[in-house]
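$ run holo --ligand "zinc ion" --emit tokens
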Amino acid sequence: METTKEKLSPHELDEFDFEEQLDIQETDAEYIQETASLFPGLLQVSGLYTWSYKIALKNPFPYAKPDGLEESEIQPIGFWRKRKEALRIDLDGKYPQNTISGTIKIGLNLRSHWIASVKYQGSSKWAGTIWYKSGHAALLPHTGIKMKVIRSLYPGQRLAIVKFGGGGATSRTMIYRWKSKYFRNVQFEFDVASGTSAVTHIETDAHPNRPASLPAEKLTIQKVFRSTGFKVSTTKDSSIIPLSGSGPNARWSDMEMHDAMQTYWSRFSNRPQWSLWTFFAGLHEQGPSLGGIMFDDIGPNHRQGTAVFNDSFIKNPPHSDPKPAAWVNRMKFWTTCHEMGHAFNLAHSWQKSLVFGGKGPWIPLDNEPEARSFMNYPFSVAGGQSAFFKDFEYRFSDDELLFLRHAPEQFVQMGNADWFDDHGFNQANVYPEQSFKLEARLHRDIDHFEFMEPVKIELKLVNMTGQPKLLGISTLSDSEHLTVIIKGKGKPARQWHPYTQKCLENPLRQLVPEEAMYSSLRIASGLNGWDLAEPGVYEVQVAINIEGEDIISNVLNVKIAPPKSYEEELVAQDFFSEDVGRILAFNGSMFLEKGNDVLRQVVDQFGKNRVSCHASIALNMPLAKGYKYLDIPEGESLYASAQDANASIKVAEPKVDEARKELMKVLISNKNNAVDTFGHIDYGDQVKMLSQFLYADGDARSAEECMKNAHDVLKSRNVLDSVLEEFQHERRQYSENKSGSKTATVED
Amino acid sequence: MGNKTDSSQSIGQKPVFHIALREGFYEDEIQVEHNGQIVYQKNKVTSDVRIGLADSFEIPQQEGPDILYFMIPEKGIKQRITFQFSFTVYMAVSYIDDELRLTVSDAPFGYM
Ligand SMILES: [Zn+2]
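-- output --
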């Protein structure tokens, strides 16, 4: 809907005086305010407002090119690219959250999402602060908003005038036009298994135990979700699903329901869409203790299907309930809304703050164990189910409404973010002026990674405060404070979870103003598997929490090239395994033999590919330094204590000659290639390690030579003088001790 | 993840303990000892956050007091509970704020 440009060009918007415009409209606004009580529904402010503008390619930012955006970041659509903005105003109507949120989209790939809390200032004006931002921060540098709404009985005349300011940026005024009283659209389909039925509505006064203020009405599931802000439509073609789908025992497993969903849901598609399948069946294979389940955490697109089991415990009313049939009907209705809530990515009321397997709430939330919400268990509150239903208004809690109405679309939409995973950055603590600047980058001659070449990125954190700051030296490698998001094109984003949560001792170091600290992250694989394996284009973004402030990096583009041969594809099937991922992450293993075999195959078959550098390092580092292991005599139980089993700690014989030859080949003979594929930081660390064990083995001359080579190649790449000096210093030490004698080769 | 069992089925007619391992478990090794016998031992017990349940199992009650130990060796948890009941008891165990929390009921728990 291109409305605003008819009245105001982008240039005019820049000069548009917010206050002046407000004054002009004051009389109308007051008049409308007075008449509001006569037409309450028609004059509601809440709803969705939009603005859009086509940008000519030659001059993509006629009004203001946001700082930090390259023009090449914008994908053209034909000869135009479109800037679209949506504004969700949530100030009146049912359960208002005093919140305004917005989404800015430019072309196909630039997105920014923001949320502000606002207070009424009188005369149809509100003001407040933006407390949440995600996406391309440059699209909205501001930290506060002021808004004036123009109400009208005629939808085409309803406007929201919003002025964005603060954050050190030039203020910007936008005029959004009313589009809908709903924030988002969603479509439901209800299918039933043969022999059972769907409860999709109830009479709210059918059971005597209810809030006195609850209106007596026929309440449908659609109406419940309409009151959360969704425009709900329902497909007409409901199916009766034969029991044969559940296998011989007539109980449904998650996988059987997933199969049924793909077969019978008229709208099924393996992609994110605002569409949800709800299935009514007899029993889950788990038995009568399971009332319902959001069964779809299977495959790449989660949360598309949910199920209710009519023959489970929810069909059993409490003893001596005055209206058992109404109780059961209400319980089935409640369970259906509950399971559908899970499909919108809502957690249980008592799990709101839970971080589980690296997944957690989208913003810091408090548990709500006593909430009278669809997402709480009625029998778990104080006083049990009767206390619950006595105060239950058939609603979601305020925090849940905030999420459903205002969280970034991908967190809520079915088939998008993985179940329980907000997959975005928690930016509740974004400050207008960040104390640190975090940069994610690559140091490479070529702009892509070869197929199977493990992706590493480097991080640079700069102190922007103007004051010296004390930081832990492992700040940039401590996964407790670091979040890395990886997003493949057209795929949901994934959070990188490293194999170990490092619990490093973290002594402090000082970072003077403008000074930076650096680290390298090997993000190709982790506990989630190989997130960066398939050929394609990925976006990587990193966030770090320092003293409660979230510092967000730029979005880094990472490209992975396709395999060059069928043989590469074949080996890749074994290469992208957990064993290989762990071996590469820990620079080798003496125990994961299967993975080591794959790496040997990689070195033998693809010696010219960059992945072979990584494979060779992982195979040879352990040989070079000797390994401690627990030696249990034959015949002793593996499950006895080490002492009982007469076990002892032994050290594997180092194979220095073999290792030295291979490591020198990778790190010194092919140093340019090695720097490219390992990055400056890891390359430097590996050469230092190689030099140390050469020296320990009595070869100070080679140790010195290695340091010289590393120094020279890093210097040719403009590495900081302070880093180069470290190499010079170590080189001098080796030079002064050329007669270095053999020392222990075991490292703790 | 462990197989979940059907809470409606009891072993014979004798009173049993129905034990549900509920919230807060993530790839944990859990052992349960009943009157000196290991009656449950599984690795990688993980709560299914969709329904708030990780696993469940039943053990027959014995004559005299029943002494149960719940153990999560990796977390250094070993908790003793003594009961003397003559009817089937439903027990839910969750790991919350670094400790085990127990809920006991004479009626089956439901999940959704
Ligand atoms: Zn649930």
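-- notes --
The radius of gyration of chain A is 31 Å.
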